[in-house]
Amino acid sequence: MSWQAYTDNLVATGKIDKAALYSRAGDSLWAQSGSFQLQPAEITELAKGFDDASGLQAHGLHAVGQKYFLLRADDRSIYGKHEAEGLVAVRTKQAILVAHYPSGVQAGEATTVVEKLADYLISVGY
């Protein structure tokens, strides 16, 4: 399966409206839906946040020019919220999944979809 299929599958759930897949270091974009692409500084900040969330805690989480309130940050998952929308980022062995969910979708529904895909990628070595 191509990397693009993973972002397409996230969007096809109806719980995610935009998604991107990056290398674990955040230095290369593997796939994206539409024009959903983080700026280099945004993905670098996000990738660093898995190991040290202090920057995200101090300055917030940024994606595609939007600032999100940081809800959770640990070595696997980073969640952010802006009004009724949100962002879910999950790190696997080799990748970072970044997904945006629109208003009308419950945060728990969106995070479950992204976390399950991350679990699958980890199970197959990614």
UniProtKB/TrEMBL annotation:
Q: What does this protein do?
A: Binds to actin and affects the structure of the cytoskeleton. At high concentrations, profilin prevents the polymerization of actin, whereas it enhances it at low concentrations.
In the record, biological process GO terms are: mitotic actomyosin contractile ring assembly; positive regulation of formin-nucleated actin cable assembly
PROSITE patterns referenced in this protein's UniProt entry, alphabetically = PROFILIN
Name of the protein described by the UniProt record? Profilin
Q: Name one GO cellular component term.
A: cytoskeleton
Family stated for the protein in its record: Belongs to the profilin family.
Key word Cytoplasm present = yes
Q: Does the keyword Chloroplast apply?
A: no
User: Record's Pfam families?
Assistant: Profilin
Keywords assigned by UniProt?
A: Actin-binding, Cytoplasm, Cytoskeleton
Q: Where does the record place it? A: Cytoplasm, Cytoskeleton
A Gene Ontology molecular function term of the record = phosphatidylinositol-4,5-bisphosphate binding
Q: What does the annotation say about its assembly with partners?
A: Occurs in many kinds of cells as a complex with monomeric actin in a 1:1 ratio.
Q: Which InterPro entries is this protein grouped with?
A: PFN (IPR048278), PFN_euk (IPR005455), PFN_sf (IPR036140), Profilin_CS (IPR027310)
